[in-house]
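Hey,
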Amino acid sequence: MEAEHGVREIRLGVYATEEQAEELKRRITRLLCPDPDHAGPCPVPWSVALLADAEDAYPELLEQARAEGRG
């Protein structure tokens, strides 16, 4: 059976400062492509994006942050 290829999206909601979010993005990027200087494109095409003001998408995350005294 041949694997079906297509675009898949993985979302990660994180309650963080902008600096913390940028650091997490950097770490995830290094996991996906540990050798950024390799020749040619990555064997599995990917991209990463950082979205600000996504509070409406993660109400339970905000509730948890408030409960823990962070929000």
